[in-house]
Design goal:
This protein is α+β, with helices and mostly antiparallel strands and 291 residues long. The chain has 4 domains: 69 residues, Multidrug-efflux Transporter Regulator, Chain: A, Domain 2, CATH 1.10.1660.10; 30 residues; 78 residues, Multidrug-efflux Transporter 1 Regulator Bmrr, Chain A (Alpha-Beta Barrel), CATH 3.20.80; 88 residues, Alpha-Beta Plaits (2-Layer Sandwich), CATH 3.30.70. It is built from 9 helices and 11 strands. The N and C termini lie far apart (75 Å).
């Protein structure tokens, strides 16, 4: 038991029992906060092990308890309470909650998408996607491949395509539409890999560039043969997960319905200026090589 008060302890200190009552928390919760490094006692008796707290720690104890009700990770709780109140603490809380709301919005959309699948409304979902085919000639590609999970994918796509388009200046210039090929599923459990690809005009210059600099980025040069792609065009809003899943599945369904087979990794072909595009502007083709 550690809620007694030893003689000789500063009378301004409160035993854990008295402090718990004032903070409207349990002694068990206070011991947990101590163990987690969120609220250390002001004094621990070296002989008895009794914990003592200052009255000024009450506000921190209550704040920790409230933040834990938001399912905030311990490290983020520490950031908020260590900010000492005021604007900085409020901004850190606001940043955390904005992330929570974004995650919940994504989960809500995913739940709606799954509800449509489970209720047998697949044809209704896929019907809004128009699937076409296009023949793409042989291309020289400079590429950057990476194993990545879904939450890291958007940032990596932007960064990798930016690096490759910059490098294309040394390879005769960009000679086609950049795309990202998926050699295996990318999700929160599967990390691909994904491959960012930029067509370039000069194969010899590209191979020379890769020899000099490309290895630092795990960049390769390869020639992709001429292909026929089955694709559907989607807007910037539809690129978001899970809407884009429905686009991929719509193309897969179309391929099967037309007696074709897949002939290589699926891909996202980015033909528009992402930053300038609005939510309803077409920006991307979801495509599968077919034969």
């Amino acid at each position: 038991m550690d809620d007694g008060v030893d003689e000789g302890v500063d009378e301004e200190l409160l035993s854990i029992g008295a402090f718990a009552a004032r903070a409207r928390l349990s002694a068990k919760a206070l011991r947990l906060y101590d163990r987690l490094g969120l609220l250390a006692p002001a004094h621990v008796d070296p002989v008895t092990g009794y914990r003592y707290y200052r009255p000024g720690q009450v506000e921190r104890a209550r704040l920790v308890a409230l933040l834990r009700q938001l399912d905030m990770p311990l490290a983020r709780i520490a950031e908020v309470v260590d900010a000492g109140g005021g604007t900085e603490a409020a901004e850190r809380l606001a940043a955390y909650w904005a992330g929570v709301e974004a995650r919940l919005a994504g989960q809500r959309t995913l739940a709606e998408y799954l509800r449509g699948r489970l209720s047998g409304r697949s044809s209704e979902m896929y019907g809004k996607f128009v699937v076409e085919t296009v023949d793409v000639p042989e291309q020289v590609l400079i590429t950057e491949k990476r194993h990545t999970l879904a939450d890291e994918l958007p940032a990596w796509i932007g960064a990798s395509l930016g690096r490759l388009e910059e490098a294309a200046r040394e390879c005769g210039g960009v000679a086609g539409v950049p795309f990202v090929a998926y050699h295996a599923e990318v999700s929160m459990e599967s990390d691909g890999p994904a491959e960012a690809c930029v067509p370039v005009a000069d194969e010899a210059a590209a191979r020379d560039w890769a020899e000099r600099r490309g290895r630092a980025w795990e960049t390769t040069v390869r020639v992709e043969p001429a292909r026929r792609l089955a694709f559907t065009r989607i807007t910037k809003a539809q690129v978001a997960h899970p809407q884009i899943l429905a686009a991929f599945e719509a193309v897969e369904e179309w391929i099967a319905a037309h007696g074709l087979s897949q002939d290589g990794p699926c891909r996202e072909v980015y033909f528009a200026d992402w930053e300038a595009a609005g939510a309803e502007d077409p920006v991307c083709d979801v495509a599968f090589p077919v034969k």
